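Long-time lurker. I teach an intro course on protein structure, and each term I like to show students one example going from raw sequence to a predicted 3D structure in token notation. This year I'd like something fresh instead of my usual example. Would anyone be willing to generate the tokens for the chain below so I can use it in lecture? Attribution to the forum is fine with me.
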Amino acid sequence: MTSGPGGKGSVSFRREKYIPKGGPDGGDGGRGGNVIIQADRNLHTLIDYRYKKHYQAQKGRHGQGQRMSGRSGENLIIRVPCGTVIRDKESGEILSDLVHHEAALVAALGGRGGLGNTHFATATRQTPRFAQPGEPGETRSIILELKLLADVGIVGLPNAGKSTLLSRVSAARPKIADYPFTTLTPHLGVVKIKEATSFVMADIPGLIRGAHAGSGLGDLFLRHIERCRVLLHLVDISVANTQDPVEALVTVNEELRQYNPDLAVKKQVIAAAKMDISQGEETLEKLKAYCTSMDLEFFGISSATGEGLESLCMRLSELVRDVNHEQQEKNC
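-- Reply from a regular --
Happy to contribute to a lecture. Here you go:
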């Protein structure tokens, strides 16, 4: 992206019949337009910026005689979804994290307009025949990275029942199938508890061992979990699952920790999924005992029958509210 260059200052002299010593009257050039990136809650993807790569703000107009300044160039406003992280392409530095609606970053400053020859007249130099050129605009390459904004993020191994759960507690309709990596992109759904109480839940594609290093879908979607206030960890305890539930729970949590240590301290709720076809009480008690030892809240649910869904959603709503209050107190 490139901001607008400033306009040139004018070299001009007053030439009026009854003013024999008019002197210089060249106006200043206008300032070039800025490139501004602004968050917009009405946008949800960055698809528009995949095809158009270069953006340039309007240049400033040149100054004119009679001390008339050139018009400044209009700012170029690039609108992005809330939750967009802006990085400098060369250094990798995070320039801004636009979380809130209408939050903005001036990504490139417009060039300053040049001064007209009026400014250079002195007692010994009464007819300056030069003016300043306008400054060039800034050119910068940036990377836009979108991190979804959700209150609750559902994590777990592939086929743990994340998409099915989201479809049962919200109006979202993600693709559901019995093969790994059915969910290829995150899905959002609004879970309504009461008429005036709701929260946003995100279905994150399944994680496997080595996800933090790029295995499976890798860290392609792990960044979305960073935005979630609460994590809901689904563990498949059905008879069709051959992996030990405790081992599955530890595997996913270790991947989260290695990707970003901050994820390990997020509030997490464990839900044993597919209770209607569970491996039995022994497996369930083993998982429950592990959660108790790690001070993790535990729920048993079945998306097929609806067992435990209401109490789980009520508790998630309470946790989201508590986390929001804590963040507001920190900001005060």
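Some talking points for your students: The longest strand covers residues 187-194. Residues 309-331 form the longest helix (23 residues).
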